[in-house]
Amino acid sequence: MDSAMNAKNKKSVALADQRINVYGFLAGIYRQELVPDLLSQIRTPPFRGVLSDLGANLGDEFFARKDEDMIEDLAVEYTRLFMGPGKHIPPYESIHHERRTDGDWGKFWGASTVEVKKFIETAGLQYKDDFAALPDHISVEFEFMQKVIERERDAWAEGDRDKALYCLKMEKMFIDDHLIKWVPRFCSEVVSNAELSFYREIAKITGNFIEFEKENIDAYISDA
What are the boundaries of each domain within the chain? Predict the structure, then answer.
């Protein structure tokens, strides 16, 4: 029984690690303009293989251009897509989460922002001292999921099934009440407006990943 339980826990730890890595990667991509170190990492054959497995086709040009040229182009694209000052796609839940009950959406610091802020604080997580974004920025929400799944992973590693199950239920609530409500819509807009393959393909795998999470979180809980 112990060996079977240990095997199950190890499987759960491995799954949690995979999810942590994806949420962490995506949080870093949307948090700021792509930095040279991350670009170099993405261009390595192993990472290129991972992105291919996720369904991203960045194209030969992405891997062939000089680092400094690609970094500059991606910085311009990031600003144009997510920051403006012209027409852009703000990466905030309150802009895209269509709330039919109260209609409080389509603006910054809407009801969704307040709910996300309370959710994160209730989970016992704190913002960094230099935190300047709104709580419902896509990178913040992905980082929140990353942290909760890290707690889940640690619980599995310690053999604490109840704590792991608690974390999974928290993950499900955040996916159901927040991520699935707006991330696919946001990603669809990015796909339609991106001029470079990088953000278009990243948006595709982001939307697909959140849909996958929505479809599978109940199974994760049942397995626990």
Answer: 2-223
